[in-house]
Amino acid sequence: MRMEAGTLVSLEVAREVPPNGYFLTDGSQDVLLPYGEIVGTIKPGERVDVFLFHDTQDRITATMKRPHLILGEVALLEVVDIHPRFGYFLEMGLGRNLLLPYKHVPELETLRPQVGDKIYVTLAHDRQGRLIAKLATEEDLAPLCVRAPSSWKNQWVEARVYKPLQMGTFVVCDAGVLGFGIIGLIAAPERTRLLRVGETVKARIAFVREEDGRVNLSMRLRKEKGMDEDATRILSFLKERPNGAMPYSDQTSADLISDRFGMSKAAFKRAMGKLMKEGLIYQKENWTYLKQADASEASFAPQNSKETQG
Asked: What sequence ranges are listed for the domain S1 motif (predicted)?
């Protein structure tokens, strides 16, 4: 059987070859175990468990050090460096780093990991047979993940991004003593910003799916609490505006509301409804005013302002 980089194998110590190390054998092939890769002491005739990798000259080499990841596994590895041409270097536990090429990360810069982030990856070979990392997929993670208890609804958990998409961000939620993690989705309207691969975020479990125990999450507060917070934000914004007037109303586009206030249009409308019900604001001609701003309304009509809704 061909010796393959990325695997753990048990081999016999065949002979010492100073000043390099020891040759190990499976009976048909030999591989060098350099002195610097030995843990403890060994002697010819013994069997040792080693990890196979390529050295700097692309030769299969053995080490008795244990890596954080082998072929067929998923591991959470830390980004320790970023190369402008090649990609991301990950700490592998061997005194050398594992490359995650740029082609295996999102094209959008803001979705890519940063130094210090930890990302779920698998081990693979490039075209030359050298070891590289790839981002773990749902197919890789699903067998390791567990179901969320229904009692977790509305609890806040820590989630780590493994796949950012425009329609939503897929994450693995910390499952604590339950196991590896729980697969979840933060839909785009439930995000307060874009999330990058490897980033951790606090999110609220909004729904637990009965069929598979996966969860839908939100970075926002529950509607009742969120409405109070959003209303306070809008009120503060109005109080800082000239004469307490702003060119935003229920008719403002969702994109503009998100950019200006960091909330969805539905959340904006709920908060505005709360403020109007409490008699704190009113709307006219797609503008919103504080009640005490009535007298100045005319001077801040949309046609006289340079600020538009776009």
From this structure: 154-220
**How far, in Å, are 207, 234, 254, 286, 297 from residue 281 at the CA level?**
34, 10, 20, 13, 12
Contact 171, 203 (CB under 8 A): yes
In CATH, what number does 224-304 get? 1.10.10.10
pLDDT, one tens digit per residue, over 172-212 is 999 987 778 999 999 998 998 899 999 999 999 999 999 99
CATH classification number, 145-218, choose in 3.40.50.720, 3.30.450.40, 2.40.50.140, 2.40.128.20:
2.40.50.140
Number of residues assigned to the chain: 310
Give the separation between CA 87 and CA 104, rounded to whole angstroms. Answer: 9
Residue range(s) in the chain whose domain bears CATH number 1.10.10.10: 224-304
Q: What is the dihedral of CA 82, 88, 92, 93, to 10 degrees?
A: 0
Q: Where in the chain is the domain with CATH 2.40.50.140?
A: 8-63, 74-136, 145-218
- Burial (CB < 10 A; 0-12, 13-18, 19+), residue 145, is buried
pLDDT tens for each residue of 156-177? 999 999 999 988 999 999 998 7
Tell me the pTM: 0.72
What CATH number has the domain spanning 8-63? 2.40.50.140
Q: Would you state the structure tokens that stand for residue 86, as one six-digit string?
A: 């090649």
Evaluate whether the domain defined by 74-136 bears CATH number 2.40.50.140: yes
Model confidence over 238-284: pLDDT tens digits? 998 888 999 999 889 988 888 888 888 888 888 888 898 889 999 98
Determine the pLDDT at residue 38. Answer: 96
Beta strands in 209-276 (DSSP E): 215-218, 245-246
Which three-class secondary structure state does DSSP give residue 49? Answer: strand
